[in-house]
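Z., the sequence and structure:
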Amino acid sequence: MEVQSIYGDLPRLETQRLVLRKITLEDAKDMYTYASNPEVSKYVTWDTHHMIEDTKEFIRFVLRQYENKGISPWGIEYKENGKLIGTIDYVGWQAKHNSAEIGYVLSQEYWGQGITTEAARELIHFGFTHMDLIRIQARCFIKNIGSSRVMEKAGMSYEGVMRKGMKVRGNHEDLKIYSILKEDFSL
């Protein structure tokens, strides 16, 4: 399976409370609301957005990815109010190995409501049913307890710690790694 077969026209996915869809420039204000929050950017690889232009620059990058049929994120839209409240995506996809890694971020005001877990389960389901994946993994900083809980609630199993697995903002960070195999996922 080729990356372009999925990302050539990123499909719209729906759950009970969420729409996973392409991001647009009209989402800049909603995205800036969470991307400018230091608590949200504390455990991610990107820097806190200091100006709305930082957010627009990121969205323009995403739009180029869509146009070039490259790996790109789904926006997480909350059905109740129509706001973009985060993103979720396959941050890495090794098609020849039938393996991918998911990553996500969510606005702080929606933490603790099972929203990221709901989005992650949908993306995992999509990966196993439409992307020919047999393994999906996710990683988080050791200190990111919320992300660990999302992975566990999404059905992933803890595999261990990648010591100094990523350099972020000048520091080498230990990462927890979780995974789920197709045979372990109930469709």
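The helical segments are 3-7, 28-35, 38-41, 52-67, 115-130, 145-153. The beta strands are 13-14, 18-21, 74-78, 83-94, 99-106, 135-141, 157-168, 171-181.

Let me know what you think.
H.
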